[in-house]
Amino acid sequence: MQVMLGAAFVLAAWHMAVRGFGIPKYLVPVPLEVAGAVQLHWRTIASQAGFTLSAAACGLTLSMVLATSLAISFTMSRKFAQTTLPVVLVFRSTPVAAVAPIMMLIFGRGISTSMAVVTIVSFFPMLVNMMRGLQSADRNAAELLYVYGASRWQQLRMVRIPYALPYLFTGLRVAGSSAILGAMLSEWITGTKGLGNLILESGELRETELLWAAVLTSVIVALTVFWSTSAAEKRLLRWTQR
Amino acid sequence: MVAASAMPQALSAVWRPLLTGIVLIGLIEAAKRGHLLPVFVPAPSEVVMEVWNVPRLVTANLGPTAWKAFVGYCIAAAIAICAGSIAVSLRVLYGPIYNFGVMIHSVPIIATAPLLALWLGTGPQVQIAIAALASQFPMLVGTIQGLQAADARQRELMHVLAASRWQMLRYLLIPSALPYLFAGLKIAAPSAVLGAITAEWAGAERGVGAMMLYALFSYDTPKVWLSVVLTCLLAGGGFGLWALVERFAIYWQRDVEIAD
Amino acid sequence: MSRDIQIDQVSMVFYGRGEPVIALDKVDMHIPAGQFAAIIGPSGCGKSTLLRLVADVMQPFAGTIALGGETPAAARHAHSLGFVFQAPTLLPWRSVTQNIELPLDVVGRRSARRSARTTADLIALVGLRGFEHALPHTLSGGMQQRVAIARALMLTPDILLLDEPFGALDEITRQRMNLELLRIWSESGTSALLVTHSIAEAVFMSDRVYVMSARPGRITSIIDVPLERPRRLEMMRTPVFFDCVNAVRDGLFGHEMTQAAGQGQPVEAY
For B202, which of A26, A188, A206 is closest by C-beta distance? Predict the structure, then answer.
């Protein structure tokens, strides 16, 4: 409710500021004009958004699979963790600016580059969260199974993984928005279809309303991803922490 | 005597990764000579030759990007530190200032770069602005956390000593804020660099980002890698510089982490 | 130089969520100048609050406090108070010497009206010679606390306030610090008010022990300690010491304890 009021207030203030200061249309359009652009071009916006989202989704899924398997292997074998973890740490905060051009060299222009960039950028946060999740299992619960003679696999399946589930969503939350942004930035370099490209092109063509519409859409998409993963994470966390 | 022993410590922390890096480069070079590596990984020697043949390549591009990032960084630092100080001293403004910082932090370069290009025209102003927007948040958080770092007992101590507000600031609040401030400044440096480079992708004549786009367009693999290397050097260099200063300036405790 | 401490009908109320908390309820204390007094009581009895009221960190809800005839605020601004906290509370970026000289920096070295002891004297007094330039994180807890004591004495205060200064130390270090503190105190001649959890410490250190009860904070008994000075550890085996400790214990836990133990008449406490 508060969010709606806040948004309405912002829109009203926006409209008044633009009209009041006499800001020309080509710099800042009024919300109504932006809405008009959205209505006019909604198919384009939607399809471009679809490209970006699918690239982000595929990349996130891939990195989730990789991160989870790596995290599970780390939990199962401490030696493996000791040798491999330092190597992984090297790629701790790989910036998109460095990763994207190299991925483009490998995968060329196309959606696979965006996917690769998303995978790399979101890999480390997902790994960290999955590791934390697997280790977070209530000490007592894990020990209980151990006393019952459960094998390591059973411990994993029955205790650690359910406890780790909320952390999966933490990872998705942390990595989600940077995934979307990574996909869009890749589109800037490669020129593939997507929201990022739409933004760039509409800027170059000076189609201001469309530019604003695209920008707003991208922000809304990023926020939606953030809120939904956040909500899932909270709900799951509440469940595991009784 | 504390600062004197920090120097060899700093060196010892650096030589191991440095050695590993040199060995790695040697291995890649050898593998490339033996045609063992795919096409998209160039021989390090090729990358070096790029620089050797046309040194102006590096200077003409590295300079502008570094300059833009630096100017944006300084602007952001000045504003963030002032805003942070105001937020801590005037409680009523804390919420608005912090939230404003969060908001700017959350709006991606994707959104701001094209809009700023529209408003400010082509030229370095856009990249400077983006560098500022990209680096402000850690500095704001560092300032706010730092100024709140003095604990209750220390404040009581200054009160019992009948210290004036100015003395409290000078003897307690500012020194206890320094570790957090430095942490924030340190983290913000690479963000400014990366922001400037990413902003160049949206249209710039010169700079590491522009060089990168041009190299990608002409499928010039060594040049692409060179631009990536320059990116990492610039970003890492800013961070490393601050880390070095921090080691000498903050001599009484280990690094702090600032919350996000 | 020392001041007397007069606490008259002091009450303190804290407002938080829910019911207001009466931390102190009409407390009276009259400590003559130059005396060493101890306050002991369970958690929540307001003893730390009382100390902070004397130090002008807080103002009482009702009642008056007079330090040598002046208000705590006046005494504080005259730099007549020394405070030693539970945690050493040293400034980590200052060396031992710089920490001890912090009061001088605040007062302004040139305008220090009273003759401040030299830092070297103080460092020798607390037994930290050789550590003048050490940073706090290189010192043990006991050593840090000694720096805090030296700092509190820097401007030769008239009143020394100590809030469980040795609570975080182990028993052995604690006993040693007690002796050190008594030595330092006797050489400085200030009045001292010590808040402590330890019955033995309260009796061993002070001339008079104030026993408090909690919720609301009140003084239940006052025990005079007739042991002679300088105090020595062997005194802890004397019957006089034992009686005082029992009296304090009675004040804390009530008479049931002594009667149950089958002791003779309960010790008179006044």
Answer: A188
